[in-house]
Structure prediction request, 361 residues.
Amino acid sequence: MLEDFPLEIITEPLLTWFQSNARILPWREEPTPYRVWVSEIMLQQTRVEAVKPYFQRFIEALPAIRDLAECEEERLLKLWEGLGYYNRVRNMQIAARTVMEEYQGRLPADYAELLKLKGIGHYTAGAIASIAYKIPVPAVDGNVLRVIARVTADDSDIMKQSVRTRVEEALQKMMPEDAASEFNQALMELGATVCVPNGEPLCLECPWKEFCEARRLECWQTLPVKSEAKPRKIEEKTVFIIRDGEKVVLHKRPEKGLLAGLYEFPNTAGHLSEEEALQWVKEKKLNPLRIQKLEPAKHIFSHVEWHMTAYVIRVDELAENKSGMLFVEAKDSEERYPIPAAFGAYTKYMNIRLGNEKFLQ
Prediction:
C-alpha cells in the first residue's frame, strides 16, 4: 500500500533512467509555459504521436497567448479539427483572454493562480508549474496513478478523487526541489513507455524492477484498480451527404451541447431505409436524383456512441437558403469549416480530408 511503501527510493533510479530514455518531443525542445500548456491540453485523451503535428501547426499559427486570445473561433476550431473534445480549446481561449486581462499576457508562475484559469485542473497546473517554472509540485495523470499503484501494490480505486489527492500529497512530500520538471516528466514517461496502460508492462526495462511490489507479487494485471464507468448511451443516426456536383450541404450545430458550433452533415435520429431517406430529402425542398447507401460507421464519445448509417444523395442544382442549410464548395469545407471526426468515415465522399489527413502526402 502507498502509506507503507518508502516512496523516496523511486527518485534516483527514475531520474537516471529518464536521462537516457526521454523521448524527443516538440514541446520538450522549448518548454515555455505557453508551449507546455498547449501540449498538455492536447495530450488529454489523445495519443502523443497524433498530437505532434497538431502541436506544430497550432504553435505556428498561434505562437503566443495573445494570438490564441484573439483568434476567430472557426479558425481556432479548424486548427483543432480531429482532436475532439472541442471544449478543451474553447476553454483555452477563455483562459488566454483572462491571462491577457489579468496577468499581463503571461501564465502565472504560481500553482494556485494557474488553477483559477478556465480548463486548467490540478494535473495541468502541476505540469505547467513544474515543467515550465521548475516549481516543486506534483502533476498526477493516469500514467502517474498507474505506476505509483503498481510500484506500491496499492489497490485503491484511482477513479476516486480522494485517491488522486492521496497520491498528490505523497509525491509532494518527496518531490526533489531541484529536479521537479524532470521528476514529473519521468513519471509520465515511465507510464507511457514501460509500465504501459494496455498490455504487459516491460518490467525488465523498468528502473524500479528491483523493488516494485506489483512485480514481486505478480499482480500487475489487477493494478491499478478502476471502478467501471457507466455504460454509454447508444444513439442511432442517419447521415446525409447531399451533393449537386461541386457543392455539398453542411449544417452548423447549436452553440451549446455536444460538438457545439461545429459543422456536420445533415442527419436525423434512427436508421432510415432508402425510401425514407429520399422522403426526408424531399421534405427539405430538395429534388433527389440518385441515392447510394454507404457503409455503417460508429463514433464513440465519452458518454454516447453514435451508430450511423449514411447515404450519398445527388440532387439537382442547390440553391442558397433552402431549409436553412449551408451550401458550400466541397474543397472550401476542407479549409474553412471545422467538421468533427465523428463524421470522418464519410468525408471521403465529398473528397475532403479532416485534421492531420489534410497534411499527408
